Task: structure prediction
Amino acid sequence: MKTLVTGGAGFIGGNFVHYQLKHHPDDTIICLDALTYAGNMGTLKGVLTNPKFSFVQASIADREAVYAIFEQEKPDTVVNFAAESHVDRSIEDPGLFLQTNIMGTGVLLDACRKFGVGRFHQVSTDEVYGDLPLERTDLFFTEETPLHTSSPYSASKAAADLLALAYFRTFKLPVTVSRCSNNYGPYHFPEKLIPLMIINALSDKALPVYGKGENIRDWLYVEDHCSAIDLIIRGGRVGEVYNIGGHNERTNLQVVKTILHALNKPESLIRFVTDRPGHDLRYAIDATKIKQELGWAPETTFDTGIQTTIQWYLNNEDWWRDVLDGSYRAYYERMYHNR
Ligand code: NAD
Ligand code: TDX
Result:
C-alpha cells in the first residue's frame, strides 16, 4: 500500500505514521503537511531516515501543489488528518478553519477523483454530533445521530464529512469517514487540555479549568485511534461512517485531579476561569458498528493511558520545551538543510 498521510506532523497523524511503519513495514508513507504552528517535525524524528517514508511540505488547500504530489507519487490510499483542530482558536478566527478544513478537504477529494485512488479516508470527530446533556448518561452518539455542531471548528469538520460523502454518492469515490472522541497520548500539542495541564503542573503554574470543570469528554488513547483507522482503510465499507471511542468518560475536573495526583502536586493549583463560549457539555461515543464489522476494540483504559502519557511528557521534556519556546519550528530546517 502507498499511503498519503496529510497532517502527519501533527498529534494524531504523527502517531499514525509511526503506527503504520511499525505494523506495515512494507507499505510506503508519504506525509504531506503545511507545518502550521501545530506541525512539528520533531514528532517524525524517528522515521525521517526510513526509506519507506518521505515528507512534503505543502498545504492541502494548495491545488497545484496537491495535484503535483498526486501526479508524482500516485498514492493508492489517502488518510486526511490535516486540519485546524483547536476549538478555542476557531472561536478567535473561524476563517482559517473554513479554508483548511473545508476547502482543503475539497482539493484532496478533487485530486483523488482526477488521479484515482483506492480509498480516501476522512478523519473526523465526534464534535460533529454536538453535545449530550450531562445528566443523560444513557445517551451516546451513534452514526445515525444528526449532525448538530456548536463551534466553527465542528461546523467546518461536519462540512468536510458531508463533502466527502457527497463525492462517494455523486462520483463513486471510495470514501470512508471516522468520527472519534477526544484523543490523548504522546506528541499532543500543549494547547489541549491534557498536555497543557501536565506541563503547567510540572512548572507549578495555575491549571485553568473552564467553567466548573463538569464538562465530560470520552478519552481515547491515540494508538487505539490509529488501530481503528488502520482497520477501516483496509476493511471498512466505502460510503460508511464509523464512530470510534472507548467508553472512558471523565469530567474535566476528574482529569485535572488525576494529573495532579500522579505528579504529586496540590489541587490548589486549579483555577476556575471563564467558560468557553458555546462549550459542549458531554461527548460519548457508541462504537458498536466498528466493533461488530471490523472487530475493533480499544486496548488502553484511561487509568493506564493517562499514566503512560504523563510518563511520556516526563521523559520527553525536550519535545515540549521546544514547542514552548518555539524552536520546534526550526527543526525542519535543521533536519533538511544540506540533505
Ligand atoms: P493537530 O492540530 O495536532 O495537527 C494537525 C496537523 O495538520 C498539523 O501537523 C498541521 O501542520 C497540519 N495542517 C494544518 N493545516 C494544514 C494544511 N492546510 N495543509 C496541510 N497540513 C495542515 O491535530 P490532531 O489533534 O492531530 O487532529 C488530527 C485530525 O483528527 C484533525 O482532522 C482533527 O479534526 C481530528 N480529530 C482530533 C481529535 C483530538 O482529540 N485531537 C479527535 C477526533 C478527531
Ligand atoms: O485550558 C483548558 N481548560 C479547559 O477546561 C482547555 C484547553 C480545555 N478545557 C476544557 C474544554 C473541554 O471541555 O477541556 C475539555 C477538552 O478541551 P480541548 O483539549 O480543547 O478539546 P475539545 O474541545 O474537547 O476538542 C478535542 O476533541 C475533539 C480536539 O481538540 C478536537 O480536535 C477533537 O475534534
About this structure: The chain has a mean pLDDT of 97. Residues 85-87, 125, 127, 182, 192-193, 196, 208-210, 215, 217, 252, 276 surround thymidine-5'-diphospho-beta-D-xylose (ligand 2) (CB under 6 Å). The longest strand covers residues 119-125.
